[in-house]
Amino acid sequence: MKAEPMTRNGGKIPGATLQRLPVYLYRLKAMRNQGVGRVSSRDLAAQLKIKPSQLRRDFHHFGGFSRPGQLYNVCHLIQRLEEILVLTEPVEYVIVGVGNLGQAIAAYSRFEADGFRLAGLFDINPKLIGLNFRGVEVKDLELLPALVKEREVGLGIITAPPEAAQGVADLMVSAGIKGIWNFAPVNLQVPESVALRDEFLSVGIMSLHYRVCEPGRLNDGEVA
Ligand code: ATP
What we know:
Blueprint (H helix, E strand, L loop, with lengths): L14 H19 L4 E3 H8 L3 H9 L10 E3 H11 L6 E6 L3 H8 L2 H5 L1 E8 L8 E2 L2 E5 L3 H8 L3 E4 L3 H14 L3 E4 L12 E4 L2 H13 L11
Parallel strand pairs: 3-4, 3-7, 4-6, 7-8, 8-9
Antiparallel strand pairs: 1-2, 5-6
Helix pairs in contact: 1-4, 2-3, 7-8
The site of adenosine-5'-triphosphate (ATP) has 18 residues, from helix 5 and helix 8.
């Protein structure tokens, strides 16, 4: 299993910083694609609409942008960010539940560009098994443990219905998956050693709708 992202001091990256690093990586890759070779913290912060001091504080964890006016090599910053985010080689993931949402995630080509490779699609519906999405065949869920072990897959996405999600999570965990992105609207129990991220889409749209209906509270950060 891969190492956890560490700072130059050997500590873990704070959660809030970790949320921002992929945004910096996106922006820097876009700059590289536009042929930009060097950038200052001020310019990058302006493009991201954040304070330069915030950017420098975040980069300080891994030794970039130590001086305000100085120009930094874009490719080098990308490389450091990819190292810190443990993205130096492709990361494989599987999807369980190949319904509308599972198929939409499987079709999302951006993940490939970000370094995440779809290793397997699993379902229990015989009508779906054997179908092909982006070159990956849907397999019977029973075959998940073998594939996870064979390819050392670290990440699993659950897009099965809520009543099936805990069983799927248990299977993923026993197969060796270390991180679960759960889209089923149910709270899952997983061992502490497994990272769990819930993405309850209905909660998202309900919260947004509520904020729209309560203009006085809009964007105060308490409602969402
Ligand atoms: P979506 O919710 O993505 O719109 P859907 O409405 O087609 O999809 P759901 O009932 O939510 O269907 O199920 C999503 C997928 O999960 C389906 O393809 C279904 O066959 C599959 N599924 C159901 N139970 C399990 C299970 N125990 N393990 C794996 N996959 C399952």
